[in-house]
Amino acid sequence: MAASVIRRLNAYALTFRLPIIIWQAIFFIGPLFFMIAMSFFLVKNYRMVEAFEFKNWDKMLSRNYVWDSYWYTLGLAALSSAVASLVAFPAAFALAYRSSESVRRWAIFLLIIPFFTSYLVRTFSWYVILAESGVINAGLGYIGLGPYTMLNTMFGTIIGYMTLTLPLVVILQTVSLASVDRSLIQASQNLGCPPWRTIFAVILPAAKTGLIVAALFAFILSFGDFVAPYYLGGSKPPTLPILIIDTTKAGQQWPRAAVVAVIMMVTLFVVAFTAIMLAYRKRGSK
Amino acid sequence: MRTGDWALRGYVLFVFVFVFSPVVMSMIFSFNSDRFPTIPLGEFTTHWYETIFADEDFWKAAQNSLIVSICASLIATFLGFCTAYSDYRYTFRGQGAYLGIILLPPTIPLIIMALAMLAWFSKVGISGQVYSIIFAHTVLTAPFAMAIIRLRLNQMDESLEAAAWNLGASEWRAMREVILPFCLPAIVSSLFLTAAVSFDEFTMAWFVSGLNKTLPVHVLEIVQGTIDPQVNAIGTLVFLVSMTLVIIAQLAIFFRLNRSAK
């Protein structure tokens, strides 16, 4: 069979191989490289001039508010990733080990829907639910509690991030937990391991890769999102994505926005690389 | 163990309530007469729907959204199919990089892609048009198309295509009569899923569209002003459309993938 596969590049092979290369070169690689180049351009009289100067980098890296924003965004995204992982885990555990195959499949089916639909409108809906006179506070009012301020707080931002990330994290965790070899779990129970130790000593290490990848996705999504920190978190201080929007839309300072974007990409690259190294690292053999 | 199981079940329910309550709330409040939505509810009204249906901006945005998501899904599915088939059929140098250029975009924050595309599109003179949004959305959605179709090709018996050649079919004919029919469910699924993703995307659309708003960008602009219950009405319509698309996409393939994988 293998011998009959034609390895030579002919018109047929090129027809299928070339489109994406050409398309992504124009619409994906081109824009990314141009943005990196743009971070060295100058703005004169509100017009962008192509140049190779470090002015934008100097300016942005020497500003305290940029660094404040950087650490705040990094911290929020890490927090969001941790919260999503912790909140999702019991649900993923239940779906993986305490549910039938068909319940699990339906649960994933249902969770895929919100992952792909209307994050913006769902966030706005939270705005109304969490507001001072919103549904939750009105409900709490009946039992004599509140009102609590939930909007324009970090709590609000995290709720927004969960809206974005939780469905995906539950799906990824469920899939990776469900694929852990059951005989390992059975063995640890037979050897008298209490449930908690089975989770920490057997299940978590075995499902490590999937769990870390899920956390990484939560981090990436939160790090790049502007809707939650803007509408639910009150944008104080602004996160890096909000900084990009403000600099681009209001200030017309595209090169400076490009600097922020490049900083974000480098950060994400480092975080993703570290996470993937951790995820695939073999446990030290004794 | 039993109480533990009930607690876990309750917890799963809690997670689902958290995930779906914004959707449900938005639907309820779209029929609620109060300007600021809270409980107890005001009266039932279709006022907000009447408002948006009378709004020319809404219809213009809906039309843009429709054009963009249809075109983006057609192009993305074509690109995804070609790439998935190349990866399935051939082994070649640089295959990793080849897969990288199609699969990477969803891992890059949309705001960065948006800025990069705005700058690049302005530079080459294709910014601010409806087709600018289509280009941007194909880059975002092609990976999903590729993934779905690649998974389907995984299930195909490799000797099927070779058998067609041995029986005298040309490569093109084998493509038409063996590969394409086999991939059809995945192609349908991909068309619907990529349409849904495009229909909902607002960051890149907001940056590159100029004055040609899509529905989510229209929502974004309303939300920036004040609390306007119109948003719930538009949101409900957007939910219904994109949910339907995602559900169809899943029914077309995911159950089939699960079943034959076992």
How would you briefly describe this protein structure?
The complex is a heterodimer of chains A (286) and B (262). Chain A is mostly helical. Chain A has 13 helices and two strands; from the N terminus they run αββαααααααααααα.
SSE inventory with pairings:
The complex is a heterodimer of chains A (286) and B (262).
Chain A: H1 11-38, E1 42-44, E2 47-49, H2 55-62, H3 64-97, H4 101-116, H5 119-130, H6 135-142, H7 154-178, H8 182-190, H9 195-206, H10 208-224, H11 227-232, H12 240-250, H13 254-280
Antiparallel strand pairs in A: 1-2
Chain B: H1 2-29, H2 47-53, H3 56-89, H4 95-103, H5 110-124, H6 130-154, H7 158-166, H8 171-200, H9 203-208, H10 215-225, H11 230-261
Features:
heterodimer, A: 286 residues, MetI-like fold, two-stranded antiparallel sheet, 13 helices, 2 strands, 74% helix, B: 262 residues, mainly alpha, globular
- Fourth-level CATH superfamily of chain A: MetI-like
Helix content of chain B: over 70%
Calculate the terminal CA-CA distance of chain A, rounded to whole Å.
44 Å
CATH level-3 fold name of chain B: MetI-like fold
CATH 2nd-level architecture of chain A: Orthogonal Bundle
Number of helical segments of chain B? 11
Question: Which protein chains are joined by the largest interface, and how many residues does each one contribute?
Answer: A-B, 83 and 89 residues
Assembly type: heterodimer
For the report, how would you describe the main beta sheet of chain A? 2 strands, antiparallel
Order of helices and strands of chain B: HHHHHHHHHHH
Number of domains of chain A: 1
Low-pLDDT windows of residues of chain A: none
Task: Identify the overall geometry of chain B.
Answer: globular
Major pleated sheet of chain B: none
CATH class of chain A: Mainly Alpha
CATH architecture of chain B: Orthogonal Bundle
Low-pLDDT runs of 5+ residues of chain B are: none
SSE order of chain A, one letter for each helix or strand: HEEHHHHHHHHHHHH
How far is the first residue's CA from the last residue's CA of chain B? 30 Å
Lateral arrangement of strands in the main beta sheet of chain A: 1-2
